[in-house]
Write a structure and sequence with these properties.
238 residues; three-stranded mixed sheet; single chain; mainly alpha; 10 helices; two-stranded antiparallel sheet
């Protein structure tokens, strides 16, 4: 693998791999780091006919297929729903592009039917649930009884949002993992919290009919973090 990368120049490798890494903010830097790692790797040489190389080629082929599908679906979604107010408004939220917006509308329908964001969270399976039996009381976890595809879409959108420069989602994630950034359980809980925040934002902007404005959550005296509404700018923030 390292030899396959370093067989190209750094510029040629970045150009060849550009479309495979998705929509990252600093793609050139990421690919440059991969190239640098390959140059300094001590990995054992692998013959071209090795099973690992065959599997790698299958993964690359699948990635290219998915990218091609995305390139087909996005323009189609724009043609079908380009004038739909909810479709346009959803894409104002970091992490939500045309495909995620389409998946949210397809999975949830009209979000105005949920009178409160807790109802929408329950519909997505993002509400907390505690298993109880007699005197036994288990840990509180996500119920995961709702729409799994919608929950996965919001999870993926949250993954993108925390990597953006705008701090509305990223700051909340950083607070969660501040004590130990390498703790996998803590990171999982942080990702879950950001996914729930994404669901609340989605519900709020559709139900209120106003545009999304980035907002960094701050605790209030009660200990809870409440939505912040701005009438002056006619926008909703969460």
């Amino acid at each position: 693998m390292p030899a396959s990368i370093t067989a190209l120049s750094k510029e040629a490798f970045i150009a060849a791999a550009w479309d495979l890494v998705g929509r990252k903010v600093a793609k050139a830097r990421l690919l440059g780091d991969i190239y640098y790692t390959a140059q300094n790797s001590i990995a054992l040489p692998i013959p071209p006919e090795a099973p690992a190389i065959t599997m790698f080629r299958l993964v690359i082929a699948e990635a290219r297929h998915l990218i091609a599908q995305r390139g087909t679906i996005e323009p189609l979604a724009g043609e079908l729903l380009g004038e739909h107010a909810d479709f346009r408004r959803l894409q104002q939220v970091l992490g939500i592009g045309p495909i995620n917006a389409l998946a949210i509308l397809a999975g949830a329908g009209d979000l105005r039917r949920f009178g409160h964001h807790r109802q929408f969270l329950k519909f997505c399976g993002l509400d907390p649930a505690t298993h109880q039996s007699g005197q036994f009381r288990g840990k509180t976890k996500l119920s995961k009884r709702g729409n799994a595809r919608l929950r996965r879409t919001l999870w993926m959108a949250a993954q993108v949002a925390i990597r953006q420069r705008e701090k509305g989602f990223r700051a909340k994630f950083e607070r969660y993992v501040a004590t130990d950034r390498e703790d996998p359980d803590l990171r999982r809980k942080a990702f879950t919290a950001i996914t729930a925040k994404m669901a609340r934002v989605v519900h709020a902007i559709i139900k209120s009919g106003v545009d999304y404005r980035p907002f960094v959550e701050r605790p209030v005296p009660s200990g809870r973090t409440a939505p912040c509404w701005s009438r002056e700018s006619a926008s909703v923030t969460l």
